[in-house]
């Protein structure tokens, strides 16, 4: 255990942009790390993606690991944040006759370990628990913080609405969640989860959830707990039941999951209802108006210093709004979501910000989510209104290639050339063909997925590629669902 004092952006890895021209911008293998003692270079996005040379991808992911090294960070004289004890952060605010806990991790065992470390700074009883939002990794360990008396538990009005109607597809979301976070990956394939460490122990996940006893109205509220002045502010973004907490005396702002050191996960590939991107941007912009001296994210290290903290929030909001505005402009110009996913990029002055590297969310995923959220699944092109059944399309592609054998040859050649996405797409055609070799198609898909995974510095994408490959290889996934 250690106490860490940090200032400005010294708490995050400093990044600079790789510059590339010609073939360098088109080839992931051409993007190589530049040796610099104090910097790790951020990648140039390739075709709207997050793929770079494997060595660069690993360097970037390893650099992000420092954001969740286990430690106690002293944010202010009476505010302490436990980082790295599970996927999210939990914080303790020390008052006159008790302490206040902000978020409680996902599991009671991890929460108890974090509390033990926090107790080095105060042994006062827990007077209140505050949930910034209802995602399980922030509420599942609450019981570990309860002593002889039950504390008041604060949450935003409408608490529990984080998943919404998508609860109906819980079974498939659970499978995709495991892939996104790489929960079943062997140790050799694990890196991290973008804004959290890999390999968290989750066996008692959610068993410590306690229901809120005080619901904060959307208009917000102010209160005093254990002599500490607190303000609750409604902040829809990642969830519709999110809020941020402001300590006016300490100038500390608890942002929840609307801010962390990564481009935000405006869409989670495990599957989510539409996250209102415009609301998210506006909520973060509102946080910036408080000009905090310290920002405590829901994940990753706090940011200290008024200029650094305020600027980070302003830039974060601007990045979200820019992606939204570019997407809306492109949609109104008649462009498809797939085209826009390759066209939309962060403004040049934001690309090198360490808290906007696409470790967790990606711009391309966000663009597609915004498109569907605003217009639904139909992209406006009549070609996609009633597309061919996959098996029929595969037959026509095979004829176009000169037969199934030629299509299979092209699939194998794409893999050999490192054209993994094309190999992946061709394998999905070959597997439908009655005169094709589904076993070979499966083998190619597995190798292509692992090839793509090696190129990814976006943790959810990487984890999903590798997890899916392992499920295919082990036989967990069977035809035609591969």
From TrEMBL:
It holds the Pfam family Alkyl_sulf_dimr. Residues 87-299 form the Metallo-beta-lactamase domain. GO terms for biological process: dodecyl sulfate metabolic process. Keywords: Signal. One of its GO terms (molecular function) is protein dimerization activity. CDD domains: arylsulfatase_Sdsa1-like_MBL-fold. InterPro entries: Alkyl/aryl-sulf_dimr_sf, Alkyl_sulf_dimr, Bact_Alkyl/Aryl-Sulfatase, Bds1/SdsA1_MBL-fold, Metallo-B-lactamas, RibonucZ/Hydroxyglut_hydro. It comes from the Bacteria. Residues 1-24 form the signal peptide. PANTHER family: ALKYL/ARYL-SULFATASE (PTHR43223), ALKYL_ARYL-SULFATASE BDS1 (PTHR43223:SF1). This is Alkyl/aryl-sulfatase. It comes from Synoicihabitans lomoniglobus. The lineage of its organism: Bacteria, Pseudomonadati, Verrucomicrobiota, Opitutia, Opitutales.
């Amino acid at each position: 255990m250690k106490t860490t004092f940090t200032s400005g952006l010294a708490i995050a890895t400093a990044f600079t942009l790789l510059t590339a021209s010609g073939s360098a911008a088109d080839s992931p293998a051409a993007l190589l790390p530049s040796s610099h003692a104090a910097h790790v270079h951020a990648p140039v996005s390739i075709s709207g993606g997050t793929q770079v040379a494997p060595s660069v991808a690993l360097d970037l992911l390893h650099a992000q690991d420092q954001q969740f090294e286990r430690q106690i960070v002293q944010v202010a004289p009476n505010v302490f944040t436990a980082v790295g004890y599970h996927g999210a952060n939990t914080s303790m605010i020390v008052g006159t006759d008790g302490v206040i806990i902000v978020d409680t991790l996902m599991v009671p065992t991890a929460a108890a370990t974090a509390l033990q470390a926090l107790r080095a700074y105060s042994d006062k009883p827990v007077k209140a628990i505050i949930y910034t939002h209802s995602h399980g990794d922030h509420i599942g360990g609450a019981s570990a913080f309860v002593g002889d008396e039950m504390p008041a538990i604060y949450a935003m009005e409408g608490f529990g609405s984080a998943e919404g109607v998508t609860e109906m597809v819980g079974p498939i979301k659970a499978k995709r969640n495991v892939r996104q976070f790489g929960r079943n990956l062997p140790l050799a394939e694990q890196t991290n989860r973008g804004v959290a460490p890999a390999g968290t122990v989750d066996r008692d996940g959610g068993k410590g959830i306690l229901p809120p006893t005080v619901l904060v109205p959307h208009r917000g509220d102010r209160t005093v707990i254990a002599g500490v002045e607190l303000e609750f502010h409604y902040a829809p973004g990642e969830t519709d039941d999110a809020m941020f907490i402001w300590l006016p005396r300490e100038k500390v702002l608890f942002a929840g999951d609307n801010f962390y050191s990564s481009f935000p996960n405006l869409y989670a590939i495990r599957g989510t209802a539409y996250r209102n991107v415009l609301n998210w941007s506006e909520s973060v912009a509102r946080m910036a108006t408080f000009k905090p001296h310290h920002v405590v994210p829901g994940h990753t290290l706090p940011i200290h210093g008024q200029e650094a903290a305020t600027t980070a929030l302003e830039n974060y909001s601007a990045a979200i709004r820019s992606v939204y505005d570019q997407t809306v402009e492109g949609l109104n110009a008649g462009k498809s979501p797939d085209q826009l996913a390759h066209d939309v990029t962060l403004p040049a002055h934001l690309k090198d910000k360490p808290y906007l590297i696409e470790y967790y969310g990606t711009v391309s995923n966000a663009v597609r989510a915004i498109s569907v959220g605003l217009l639904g699944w139909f992209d406006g092109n009549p070609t996609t209104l009633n597309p061919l059944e996959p098996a029929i399309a595969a037959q026509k592609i095979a004829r176009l290639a000169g037969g199934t054998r030629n299509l299979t040859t092209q699939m194998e050649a794409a893999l050999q050339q490192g054209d993994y996405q094309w190999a992946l797409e061709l394998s999905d055609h070959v597997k439908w063909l009655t005169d094709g070799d589904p076993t070979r198609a499966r083998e190619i898909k597995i190798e292509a997925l692992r090839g793509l995974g090696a190129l990814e510095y976006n943790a959810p994408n990487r984890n999903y590629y590798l997890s899916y490959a392992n499920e295919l290889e082990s036989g967990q996934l069977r035809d035609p669902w591969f």
